[in-house]
Amino acid sequence: MAKTTRRGRIVSGEGARGRGLRSVLRALGLGLALLALAPGVALAQMDDIDRARRMHDRLAGVPPDDATLAQMAADIGSGRADLAAELAMQHPAFYNVSLKSFITPWTNEDQTVFAPLNDYTATVIGMIRDDVPFNLVLSEDMIYTGANGLVDPNYEHTSNDHYEALEAAGVDLSDPTQLVQRLQSSLPGTQLSPGDTAGIVTTRQAAMAFFEAGTNRAMWRFTTINYLCRDMEQLNDVSLPGDRIRQDVSRSPGGDSEIFLNTCFGCHTLMDPLSGAYAYYDWDEDQERLVHTPGVVQEKYLQGGNTFPFGYITTDNSWINYMRQGQNATLGWRGAVDRGFGAKSMGAEIAASRAFSVCQVEKVFKHVCFRPPRDQDDRDAIEAIADDFETDGLYRMKGVFAAVAEHCMDD
């Protein structure tokens, strides 16, 4: 029977039996807490079958069949966890489910995974499947579409219906006869020459997401987020030249020039010189397509000219990478030149950096391990995998997935 003390606390009258039960429960709770704090203890009995099953689940998003599980466990037991991972990645769900959810957030401003298949996502999936060097993702004349006649309609510049039909039909994206590589510059009705293409930058989905309205600065911002793993606040550097900051940027927002000098300047001094590479591109809301006007700067680059008339006036699609100086030099810029014309050469500059390589590994790490790196061992592994990623210029993304899966298979 329970009773209440003078302080209003309820105590039990169950006696020794109740106290004993509570002691057992407290001990059990303490044990569970210790296991939560020390995951290695809980996983001490994990065997190769468990490791193989977990690896397959994380890579493909579905359980393995018995034969696959047995072979993966044998590979892990013989010290070849990389082969086990490669086997898991042969499952169609690695492409249709895991890679689609991995890539889709890169393709929209909301960074949501809940979006239909599109040409951006399909192109990255195809590149990974076919071992296309991933440092070409921002510069190559390439796109992946469904095979002609596979679904209705075929690829269209003015809608995403083709890719939504592929997804609705459950087309196997791991099959190279169904998801096929093409040249962007050869698509019927294209406005792009080979030199105007820039990998995913000139896909319909990227144009709709990042060239729509605005000033085309969004394309640069989301390129740094998705391919350098840094947003503008992390790149902000007020020590660089401001000669390319456009006219539409107020030098005294709210009447306070200190705000511009200490905040706005540090972003625009990086972004404006680089986003000039996109000066001939726009998203046409009426046609619902990417438009390209070679030699003619889009009007959006010239808007707000009266905000600060002495600012930079865009006259062509030239770009300069001032990040090779100052604090962002640590990103490891290794491209042939620090300036050029157009999105293709600028994309190559980004993909040649060390930060690009490390970023791809970090993204895969979070996707496969279900967590960010948490200690020096993880950070050392990321650097080592990035080294292998760059070896011989292969930039093979499946190798990154395999190495990360091996690193985390005991988690």
- Enumerate the spans where pLDDT stays under 50 for 5 or more consecutive residues: 1-25, 27-43
The class by helix and strand makeup works out as: mainly alpha
Beta-strand fraction estimate: 5-15%
| End-to-end Cα distance | 47 Å
Strand numbers in spatial order across the main sheet: 1-2
Number of discrete helical segments: 16
Largest sheet: 2 strands, antiparallel
Number of strands: 8
- Give the CA-based shape: globular
Rounded average pLDDT:
91
In helices, the fraction of residues equals 40-55%
Radius of gyration based on Cα positions: 26 Å
Order of helices and strands: EEHHHHHHHEHEHHHHEEEEHHHH
Describe this structure in words.
This protein is mainly alpha-helical and about 400 residues long. Among the domains are: about 5-40, no CATH class; about 50-90, no CATH class; about 355-405. It contains 16 helices and eight strands. The protein has helices at about 15-35, 40, 50-60, 65-75, 80-90, 90-105, 120-130, 160-170, 205-210, 215-225, 230-235, 255-275, 340-350, 355-370, 375-390, 395-405, and strands at about 5, 10, 145, 180, 280-285, 290, 320, 340. A two-stranded antiparallel sheet has the order 1-2. Strands 3-4 form a two-stranded antiparallel ribbon. Strand 5 and strand 6 (about 290) form a beta hairpin.
